[in-house]
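Severity: low
Component: inverse-folding endpoint
Summary: output formatting inconsistent between runs
Steps to reproduce: submit the following structure tokens with default settings.
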């Protein structure tokens, strides 16, 4: 249950970073920071809650990370198209 909770938190943390990533030039320093800035937060959360690395935790956390980045970038496109 903790793993699902952390997955949801990782997804939510990465939404604003995905939004930021979609606004900057690809492969710029800001783009690189937008991709990697949440990793220390996720790492600290995982250590604090005592979640060990396993195949299940890897799949859930990396999946939540990628989905958060993806949907964060889609939020901007949806908002711009409605305006």
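Observed output (run 2 of 3):
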């Amino acid at each position: 249950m903790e793993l699902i909770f952390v997955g949801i938190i990782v997804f939510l943390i990465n939404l604003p970073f995905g939004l930021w990533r979609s606004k900057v030039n690809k492969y710029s320093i800001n783009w690189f920071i937008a991709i990697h800035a949440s990793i220390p937060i996720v790492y600290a959360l995982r250590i604090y809650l005592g979640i060990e690395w396993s195949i299940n935790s890897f799949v859930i956390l990396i999946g939540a990370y990628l989905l958060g980045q993806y949907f964060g970038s889609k939020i901007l496109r949806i908002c711009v198209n409605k305006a």
